[in-house]
Amino acid sequence: MTTLKVYNLEKQEAGTVDLHDQIADATLNPFVIKDVVVSYQSSLQQGTHKTKGRSEVAGSRKKLFRQKGTGNARAGSLQSPVRRHGGVAFGPVPRSHEISVNKKIKKKALASVIAMKLKNNELLVVEDLKLPDHKTKNLVSILQNLKIDKALVVYAEEDRNFVLASRNLQSLKCVHSSGVNVYDVLSCQNVIVTKDALMDIEGRLLK
């Protein structure tokens, strides 16, 4: 087990927490991380793009003129893709862009990036996120004292004052421990996680 220090929001030590070595000492695997990030980003695509094919555009299905004797090239209906206002050949249709990734791979990637943040001293474990008020300027002062600019905040129990104070800060992203993912961890320089949230993440990764 790896012992981590737990701090309060005033950056004072408030105890320790043990993290399993399977997570704290996880090997960094760029290929696994890349697969999980690509899967996450592809799942965000709506896939609602659509064009009309020749069977969907308006117009008569009748052959425009007889096959022979007119001197013109052979022509079918108005819906042909080569004609103006005709259908689109091989156009996009609504579909899912999602790329499935095995659950074990997702767990391995998340443990890998958490271990990386630990080794780089970019993960801060706090006792809780309880604030006396919901003023943003007070939260900014706390972050300056912690020397944190852009951070991902992971909580197990939501504090209303913290949510209200942080929602105007673009440099902070708050997520529940059940919704933390590899992309969010990588996109933020620092990770602030509560003690309870870290235990919840550890339990899901070791399951």
Features of the shown structure:
Ribosomal Protein L4, Chain: A, 207 residues, 7 helices, two-stranded antiparallel ribbon, single chain, 2 domains
Descriptive overview:
With 207 residues, the protein is α/β, with parallel strands linked by helices. It has 2 domains: 153 residues, 3-Layer(aba) Sandwich (Ribosomal Protein L4, Chain: A), CATH 3.40.1370; 41 residues, no CATH class. The protein is built from 7 helices and 6 strands. It has a 4-stranded parallel β-sheet. Strands 1-2 form a two-stranded antiparallel ribbon. Helix 5 links the parallel strand 4 and strand 5. Helix 2 crosses helix 3 and helix 4 crosses helix 5. The longest helix has 17 residues. The chain is elongated, with a radius of gyration of 27 Å. The model has no long low-confidence stretch (mean pLDDT 89).
Overview in brief:
This protein has 207 residues and is an alpha/beta fold.
DSSP helix count?
Answer: 7
Strand order within the widest sheet? 3-6-4-5
CATH class of the largest domain: Alpha Beta
- Going by CATH, the architecture of the largest domain would be 3-Layer(aba) Sandwich
The total beta strand count reads: 6
Low-confidence stretches: none
Assign the CATH superfamily of the largest domain: Ribosomal protein L4/L1
Largest sheet: 4 strands, parallel
Helix content: 25-40%
Question: Could you outline the blueprint of secondary structure elements for this entry?
Answer:
Elements: E1 2-7, E2 13-19, H1 21-24, H2 30-43, H3 103-119, E3 123-126, H4 136-146, E4 151-155, H5 160-166, E5 172-176, H6 182-187, E6 190-194, H7 195-206
